[in-house]
Amino acid sequence: MSKMDEYIIERNKSNSGFAQLVEQENINLEASVKVRELRENMGMSQREFAKLVGKPQSTIARIENGSMNVSTKVLSEIAQATHRRLTINFIPAF
């Protein structure tokens, strides 16, 4: 177990929602990285990508900077518009 995992467990003892908040931030970060990688691999600006997927450029920016709790619905819409398949995995936490 990493020091970060130990810290999260310890902090969660005094703040029961802390581990859940950390996990949501990790999900946001992973989604932001994947969406940005997809857009860049397609050679598109945020504006071009937003137009392709039918979302405002500000939504793409919020996804990419990790400030949006992006839904599976939005990720699915991005996948469909870019001819990709969205997959979700459950892996052991620790």
Please explain how this structure is put together:
The protein has 94 residues and is an all-alpha fold. The protein has one domain (3-81): Orthogonal Bundle (434 Repressor (Amino-terminal Domain)). The chain is 66% helix and 0% strand. It contains five helices and no strands. The protein has helices spanning 3-14, 18-41, 46-53, 57-64, 72-81. Helix 2 crosses helix 4 and helix 3 (46-53) crosses helix 4. The longest helix is centred in the first third of the chain and has 24 residues, at 18-41. It starts with a helix and ends in a 13-residue tail after the last helix. The model has no long low-confidence stretch (mean pLDDT 92).
List the helices and strands and how they pair.
Layout: H1 3-14, H2 18-41, H3 46-53, H4 57-64, H5 72-81
Helix pairs in contact: 2-4, 3-4
Protein name: Helix-turn-helix family protein
Domain HTH cro/C1-type: 35-91
Organism: Bombilactobacillus mellis
- Succession of helices and strands: HHHHH
How many structurally independent domains?
A: 1
By CATH reckoning, the class would read: Mainly Alpha
The geometry reads as elongated
State the low-pLDDT regions, or none: none
Bin the strand percentage.
Answer: under 5%
Task: Please state the CA-atom Rg, rounded to the nearest Å.
Answer: 16 Å
Ends distance? 7 Å
Helix content: 55-70%
What number is the mean pLDDT? Answer: 92
SS class: mainly alpha
Count the E strands: 0
Looking at this structure, what is the CATH superfamily?
A: lambda repressor-like DNA-binding domains
At the third CATH level, what is the topology name?
A: 434 Repressor (Amino-terminal Domain)
Largest sheet features: none
InterPro entries: Cro/C1-type_HTH, Lambda_DNA-bd_dom_sf
Organism: Bombilactobacillus mellis
Protein name: Helix-turn-helix family protein
GO molecular function, one term: DNA binding
